[in-house]
Hints:
This protein is of the alpha+beta class and 355 residues long. The chain has helices at 13-28, 68-75, 81-93, 114-131, 192-201, 218-222, 230-239, 252-257, 278-287, 291-297, 313-322, and strands at residues 35-36, 45-46, 56-64, 99-109, 134-142, 152-163, 178-183, 244-247, 265-270, 302-308, 327-335, 343-347. Helix content is 32%, strand content 23%.
Amino acid sequence: MSDMSYAAAGVDIQAGDHAVELMKSSVGRTRRPEVLGGLGGFAGLFSLDLARYPRPVLATSTDGVGTKLVIAQQLDVHDTIGIDLVAMVIDDLVVVGAEPLFMTDYIATGKVVPDKIAAIVSGIAEGCVRAGCALVGGETAEHPGVMGVDDYDISGAGTGVVNADEMLSADLVRPGDVLIAMGSSGVHSNGYSLVRHVLSAARLELSSRPAELGGSTLGEQLLTPTTIYAQDCLALIREVGVHALSHITGGGLAGNLVRILPVGVEAVVDRASWSPLPIFQYLAAQGGVGRTDLEPAFNLGVGMVAVVSADRADAAMDLLSARGVPAWRLGDIRQAGHAATAAVVLTGDYSNCGF
């Protein structure tokens, strides 16, 4: 008689239990005082501090990391991709002025390998530590016969809170405001379908060490974790004053800045104010990719943009610099040519760049 056990079907419950044990110490690093209970319950519990937030508005976001996962799997490096996940989720919350409170994660895989799952979760926990939020729970699902044994996908959801009268929005943006750029760490977690297309077409090896990349391998550059800006943005809000924030992800500067503009204004970005990071220049050169394709796919070195009043621009850049965040004046907000529209205008040419 054939074996009709769950294990024979490809699901290893003991491996899943072992993975949970391995990740407990990582998850414990993210604990906040408001967290109730421990890991392993059916739901994560979080007690909202109504003394700090008397008029609370909850903000929520969910995301994944796209095909950057393919690079991690090819390199068999799994302890950084979780940082990318937190960045994608939590930095979408902070743009409305919300303090990130907690996250949950979901991992689907063809086969649960406890050490691999623990490595993924250790990255998620590290991201939560950087973001200042708790990791209150998650789920690991084994999908034998549906996913390959080495394949996995991850996603997450986050919750934050902001007082109703402290929310950031397009309504606060005015002509005369200044755009402050916050430098990215690299490709972040967007545009990897184009990255992989270039890798394939140009026959590039992830183990190669192009001189243009300063001695690191191409794989190391592409797996550089996404910068998490949440605590830096909250510091800007508290200490300087911010009218709006834009997380630069898929769609690039134009596609994301327009989301925070009121009708009747335009954001004018000066390309000459920075030079795109070497990884973008390298991909452009190797793949023959032009500016019109690069700008919507990548952040090109700008991971977050703050809109502040002109008289607070220097203070904003000083604060970010003191926190170790590269920052510069990216452009400004002007009256739009057509009162019924909002637009982003990219002017000039990038500094020291071939595209």
